[in-house]
């Protein structure tokens, strides 16, 4: 039997029934990686010897009667997580020899749950792109079309899942870095509520491994099914044992509803600052039709929805003001000089990005205050609705673009070009206020490329969008199988 494309839940059931061993699953996954990853380049740091040893240990533990949530399941880990004995470079050649001595909190939780770590997945340099390429490990290709990106910054993880290289992966998300690769590669990902999952140990090389509270950024699960996302989130969720974990446990509330007909959903397919391409609009419509057919209450407009234009500006300010924290003084002064030349009438997102990079502390406090007003607006919204369905980005996966100056890159939306980073506005809708969002497959483009949508839920009610994702998977289908032999849109 071909095990590589089954879900973690299915593999766990087969392991419990004695139909397969972890050693067999691990050997099969490694064989598939060795066969197919030359074309995809998803696994940048293999760890096959230790994976085989962990699989043998898992089989022995099961023989003793043990049963943990991920016991014997092959998984991958984003390169940016510290894994003891493996390099953590964030795609930066200067740190090619840096090897941390301890596992990140989430890697420890994976191993404690019994997972078998096959290796680490590729990222963009510094995790700062919507693609996954760097000088150290090269370019990760989209499994459905090798001329296109797998997304970033968790692009290696998404490509690995779509290709059958392990059943689960863990990534991170600041600007759609879980959701965009899932959308581009046809898999599932969940951006948890801000702060729900501890992130210690997912730090740049040489940075102190401290239990800091991140602003905007989260760590989260990736999978080939909605139920697997919940399985992995339950392993990942919880505060850092060095801080809040001393006194707090996590007990997520149950999903608001168990049936599709009970959900109240707002469907959005247009953003005021950038158009949505026809392929993505079609994916949103497919989900909307499934919701209506399932009896859900579906609306297209609501006065309760926080202003999307203001939200995009606040998100841009918070995101880019933090991006220059460690810039050399000379580079920072050059940014200040460029910002001073901006016209006061320039309200473009490009201008907002540049102004944000030279924010004063007073400027940041004002932006954060406006964020809190938006958070309260979302609380009022979710008193009347259970979820929002909207795009992850305006287009399916785009062709590789390695122009070293991202300001010169453009995103093509149905034949019209827009600034490259403007496509982040959809990712920012849940990220700015810290809401949970689940990326789910929603069909294919006319060229056969995967198209996904995101399901946004109320803060700390992560099980609500996850449950909606599971119901939609039953209704319209989900992951459809990995491409075969590099042929775009073909399936095994």
From TrEMBL:
One Pfam family, short name: Amidase
GO molecular function terms noted in the UniProt entry: amidase activity
Coiled-coil residues: none
PANTHER family per the UniProt record, alphabetical: FATTY-ACID AMIDE HYDROLASE, FATTY-ACID AMIDE HYDROLASE 2
Enzyme class: hydrolase
Keyword Zinc attributed: no
Keyword vocabulary terms for this entry: Hydrolase
TM region(s), chain numbering: none
Ranges for domain Amidase: 24-464
Organism superkingdom: Bacteria
E.C. number: 3.5.1.4
Name the UniProt record assigns to this protein: Amidase
